[in-house]
Write a structure and sequence with these properties.
- Keywords: Membrane, Transmembrane, Transmembrane helix.
- 77% of the residues lie in helices and 0% in strands.
- By secondary structure, the protein is mostly helical.
- The chain has one domain.
- The chain is elongated, with a radius of gyration of 19 Å.
């Protein structure tokens, strides 16, 4: 196998490792996200909250990523 093929396989292996690590850590991140929203009573599902609260909800959601 030439070096181009080896590099392709190596890159694929690294990519799969990163995906597995992200998927493994996602439940812990989701638990922190749920705890943050429920303990502080952010009520992000309510459509009549202020723009400030909506922005805070979006910021917490984006913190997950």
């Amino acid at each position: 196998m030439n070096s181009k093929g080896q590099m392709l396989i190596f890159t694929f292996m690294i990519m799969m490792t990163i995906i597995v690590l992200i998927m493994g850590s996602a439940p812990a991140g989701q638990a922190v996200l749920n705890q943050t929203m429920h303990v502080t009573n952010m009520d992000c599902d309510n459509s009549s909250i202020s723009s400030f609260d909506k922005t805070a909800c979006v910021a917490v959601d984006m913190g997950m990523f």
